[in-house]
Amino acid sequence: MAVIFYDKDAKPALIKAAKVAVVGYGSQGHAHSQNLRDNGVEVRVGLHAGSKSRAKAEADGFTVMPVADAVKWADVIMLLAPDTTQPAIYSEHIAPHLKRGKTLMFGHGFNIRYGTIVPPKDIDVSMVAPKAPGHRVRETFMEGGCTPALLAVHQDASGKAHDNAVSYAWGLGVTRAGLLQTTFTEETETDLFGEQSILCGGVSALVKAGFETLVKAGYQPEVAYFECMHELKLIVDLMYRGGLNYMRYSVSDTAEHGDYVAGPRIVTEETYGAMAGILKDIQDGTYARNWIDENKNGRPTFTDTRKREQTHMIEEVGARLREMMPFLNPVTIKPGE
Prior knowledge:
By secondary structure, the protein is of the alpha/beta class. About 55% of the residues lie in helices and about 10% in strands.
């Protein structure tokens, strides 16, 4: 049975008494920094000298420091830089300044799980990983709620790592929704699997395949876009609120029947086999090694694929249609960004 912690289980005084350095001010970094500050926590932001996020963090009212200085100042260091840059930041700017009594925290377990960061034994190492992009962590917090998160303790040198991590989670706001206890390994492997097989890789490929099938059959690209991408949010929102049952309850009987008869034709035994292969690559480190090597080599395949995907017809059609619906607050990512 899952162990889940809520506001009532936290000791807010612990994080309110701590000095917190958030390293990175991107998607998660800005959310952690602002939510913690709003809950009465002293926060400073650690960034490298040329960071593009410096101006934004300063405009949001934070004291921005070089990472090494932030680590020296802080009791708690939350490392929220991209997975691929964390090892270098850690070895150059964090590790030399870690002392007994400090806590090193992560928002994702990748570098601990795959051994690219190995902290000293005399510090606490823990994780609070929100189950949402950072902008949603911030938005839902401001609305009075928040997103769920995962909690893990990798090292408990102080004997208080668990309580301190739950207190941090309270400051972030995620104990409002639920903080589920896990391990660095479970969080990393399930997170990568979910991203690759469903949330990003699976959904992206399915949307494009449906769009391309309709366009090749002679249907208008605009109609294909609305059917295969635009309406997806409406369906996901129903699932978000009430699971598959509520989605099926809300759609027409014809749509529900199509779900039952067509779903197994799309997700076949071959699909299950592919998913098992994806999970195996994550578990045995193959995926991590390949991604680390790709970054060491300058990201040639990643960059080429990103450019190709950014100019797919569904992106061009979608951008044009979204411009006609300003109430969506549309965002356009230009190729190369």
